[in-house]
Fold this sequence. Notes:
By secondary structure, the chain is of the alpha/beta class. Helix content is 57%, strand content 9%.
Amino acid sequence: MSPKTITPELVGLDLGYDDKSAVIRALAARVVEQGRATDADALFEDAWAREQKDETGLPGGIAIPHAKSSAVSVPSLAFARLTPGVDFGATDGPADLVFLIAAPEGAAEAHLAVLSKLARRLMLDEFTAGLRAARTPEQVVALVDEAIGEGEPATAAAPAVAAPAAASPAPSATATDAGLLIDGRPARIVAVTSCATGIAHTFMAADALTAAGTKSGVDLVVEPQGSSGYQALPQSVIDAADAVIFANDVDVREEARFAGKPVVRSGVKRGIEQPTQLIAEAVAVASDPNGARVSAAGATASAATAENLSWGKNIQRILLTGVSYMIPFVAGGGLLIAISFLPFLGGYGIALAHGTSGVNNAVYTLQHFAIWNLPPEGLGYYLGAIAFEIGSVSLGFLVPALAGYIAFAIADRPGIAPGFVAGAIAVFMNAGFLGGLIGGLLAGFAAWLIGRPAVPRWLRGLMPVVIIPLGASIIASGLMLLILGAPIAWLMTQLTNFLNGLTGAGAIALGIILGLMMCFDLGGPVNKVAYAFAVAGLAAQTPASFQIMAAVMIAGMVPPLGMALASTVLYRRGFTQVERENGAAAWLLGASFISEGAIPFAAADPLRVIPANLVGGAVAGGLAMAFGVESRAPHGGVFVFFAIDPIWGFLLALAAGTVVTALIVVALKRFAAPSRDAAIAAEDAVDERVEAAVV
């Protein structure tokens, strides 16, 4: 029999804490004390990271901090009743009822469904009143057990469904309000709710909207898209609806089902806090011929993105989406090419032209030999030719993939085909990386515009698979061929010639700039721009492109390695216990070229950590260019040493940048804010008490 989700030992009544971080930390410690999680700090950090994204306070004095964490072994609920309440960000004041929902990272759907039941029950006044009146932890456990059906087989949460839209109920007393009537009948509305974790807010918003719909007399059906799965609404219900409400913090799954419907978008918390207003807005947009409509292409931006981001931020999101989808093509292809250069395989000569044949040695080998008819150089050389050719073909998708997924970020799946075509045209025109970027934007916006107008139902099925891809391909690729391709190709040629001609101070300056970009935001937009610039250049297979790749990789390794050196070796007492543990992990992350390993340090102390990272990254990037270090692999850090030349230059530049970063951050922590040591010592003392309690 599986353990109960909540026990009396996980309940604390009438407790007092200064702030919400203390509440979450105390509840995480309770979970660990009961053997349901392995690391209180890790559980706290995961729940706190979720809290930082979107505060979990809700109207009515409720807060539900929650997380899926690798530290959790048993799905658990920990409860605290607070006196006085603590601010968790709710609009109506502090929370006195706090549940920490702790789910394993790979929690089964049944467990997630049990946890979501609690979130839904918290919307009922009689349940929260019972929690406030409970005199013992056992009474709280009994209330929660009844709410989540503990002891009964847990099933995936079904959508909160009101009466079917095809058979509208008789208008209630409040349905006589003309604002909620359409053509003399109650409005028909469908809604979709989802949050980042899919555990709590998803279902609370669903219930709040359902209850508000019933009270307002509208015919409302909700599809909660939670981590425990979701049951798609029947298409007949969607087709009969007058409007759609999307209350989401993540992308709506299969949004194209709602194509052409008037739509209101918001974050999921508004679905909990202002369901009646959302319903009124949905009825209003249904009556407005110029109101927002769901695109036939579907939208990839979350509701929060669509509602809150500026044009500049949306363009940034679109470009980063394209880069993130492009990188696997480059990483896999680049590593295969690097492997083919190993001495016992093809060696560097595998990439050279073969006589006057017009092809390189790899292609010539594959054209004239086979596994049963090996070349004179032997099996290793033949396998090297295979690795080189697969890698080259994979790299050939760099520009089309970039363009295709930029278009996808704008227009969803109907944008992929015209984006790939525009990217292929950019390659044909020798417009390179920049041509793919522009072609992808053209294809995406063309597909988005074509999909915006409402079309008859019989035509909707053809829109995403025929009409949108065809029209967008003609527009985007036509513009590339007729107008834009040649100027972009000329610009790329000039840029390539400039980079190939860089020597001495110019090359070092470029290395410094790339180093600063890699260390500025640790995996953010600036970092991604520098990395994308480097990997796009690998397709040229020139010494300049290899040197740029090396400078970028070395500089990107410096922040986590510098923080690891400072926090675990040079100045341990200047870092918290959690930071020291992160420092131990950062050794491997840095060695693997994962810049994000330094993010916990930068988030905790940005004014000291970021400047140290910048200086160290600039030193590393500049030295890499000065030593002429080349990397034929786009990723891997020290583990692709075979693709780096000279290796001594790589290691020396990396060591210099790491030491500079560590020394600067230590100096800043010691002399810029020496009083912080006392705070860290106090925090360590608290951690020791927690550990002692756990033991």
